[in-house]
Write the structure tokens for this entry.
Amino acid sequence: MISKNLAAASTKPIILALLSQGEDYGYQIIQKVKTLSGGTLDWSDNMLYPVLRRLEETGLVVSRWRISAGERLRKYYRITETGREELEAERRQWSGLIRSLQLVWDPLLGRE
Amino acid sequence: MISKNLAAASTKPIILALLSQGEDYGYQIIQKVKTLSGGTLDWSDNMLYPVLRRLEETGLVVSRWRISAGERLRKYYRITETGREELEAERRQWSGLIRSLQLVWDPLLGRE
DNA sequence: ATTAATACCTCAACCCTTGAGGTATGCAAA
DNA sequence: TTTGCATACCTCAAGGGTTGAGGTATTAAT
């Protein structure tokens, strides 16, 4: 189980990263995240939908209702160019923070 | 600059990790974090004090007012045994999440 | 026919940072 | 000497964002 704050911070980069590999709909995102995290990340839909809406409002993704042959109606999300830039910014932020965390966790790494 | 959520999520493990190496007071924590992060993490005191109080309320740290020779009165924080356990739990959470993030960022790592 | 999984949505409650404010001490420069 | 700045602590309202509890509808299986 992942703490609230950490979950909150990681939803955006994870969703953007997934969508950067292709279109997805909400429920699919939840499943992919669960699989890829080995079960560690188990998102609820009522937490995901507001996030997706926010991402769309800020122009990082766009959505469209689509129905494939014999499938049910689903809302598909695609990443925008702005979204890709934001994804890169997120990656930089995380990399910096992870480096700092490793330094406090293993202070020996800092003094060589 | 680090986003709000990410900052929120990282304060606890960073503070606990710092205190696991010895007693510190609030302002000193801010400075150490800034130095160790190379300036990336620049905490404000009004953000730190509520966090420290919360850590104390939940029993992860304890504080005492102390005045060293020729120094001014300062509030020093020490990590508790519960705090050390929580620190380990945080490390595990972060490690799991970081692994998941790397998988979505570099999907090739996943398929071998 | 009923259950469970899929698929989407809303809203109030809660937690936590932010930003603006306040107090007080020590030190250095004008 | 007094003005200003850095240190050092604190509080509080406002706002952002998840959580949990709800709701609707479709599809597949029992």
